[in-house]
Amino acid sequence: MAVASTSNLSELASFRSDDAVIEMIPQFALQQPLVLHTSAKPVGPWQAGIPTKVPLWLACHLQTKRLCTVPTPAWLTVSNLSEILAFERKESSLWRDESRLPFEYYQIAQRMSLDPAAQLLIKDLLQVRMDKLRQQFQDLLKNQPVQLDEENLPPPLVVEITGMGSVEIALLQKTVQQALKDQATLRYSAMKKTATKDTAESGTPMRQAEEEPTPADRPSSQRRVALRKFR
């Protein structure tokens, strides 16, 4: 599988990853809290040379201006990534400890200056997790009956997976949405078929009754007879 790059991710996923919090070491002091925008928490104050946590986009911006340094996070070490990769290859579930593998792990790693070994581990980690998720979804859909009818109508398909990162969600979003849409279409067709059958069975007497002419539809001679009897 070709490993995805940040450019292949959805714009929304890439945008959201910019708000991931990382640690930086500023080279200047900020005496007052800085309000970035109305919906975000203020950053600062901070002192020069003292590590502080800021959004990813701000740390990258200040680093390009040479106003801070961004140390490599502890979870991006070769030893930590190797342990997580071994877990992903062995276990059927996904790694769930976000302190050692954040939700935006792939996007953050793309912004860091990593050694070749760590870069390779990140790519392998993404590939293993994607293969595992694809297999899980395939197994889940295989357990759903192909032909649905009133006697074989399973409950709605609900998917709950813990440990997915934003990169996996972005890459699998269209595939999963189409699979769930196909399942919903099959369910709707089966339910519509059942409703049509029930209506046809219960609606036969109603149609016969509707076919009988009402007094207003009867010939004039019959209407006069009925009127004389009423009087």
Give the SSE map.
Blueprint: H1 11-17, E1 21-26, E2 52-55, H2 56-64, E3 68-69, H3 78-90, H4 105-111, H5 116-142, H6 166-211, H7 220-230
Antiparallel strand pairs: 1-2, 1-3
The Cα radius of gyration reads 32 Å
* Widest sheet, order of strands: 2-1-3
Secondary-structure element sequence? HEEHEHHHHH
- Quick one: overall form? elongated
The tally of strands reads 3
Which structural class fits the helix and strand makeup? mainly alpha
Q: Could you give a short account of the major beta sheet?
A: 3 strands, antiparallel
Low-confidence stretches: 1-7, 205-216, 220-231
Distance between the termini: 90 Å
Oligomer: single chain
Looking at CATH, which topology of the domain at 78-145 and 163-195 would you report? Answer: Methane Monooxygenase Hydroxylase, Chain G, domain 1
What is the overall number of helices? 7
User: What portion of residues belong to β-strands?
Assistant: 5-15%
Report the mean per-residue pLDDT as an integer: 77
Binned, the helix content reads: 40-55%
GO biological process, one term: DNA replication
Keywords: DNA replication, Nucleus
InterPro entries: GINS_A, GINS_bundle-like_dom_sf, GINS_Psf2, PSF2_N
Domain GINS subunit: 75-152
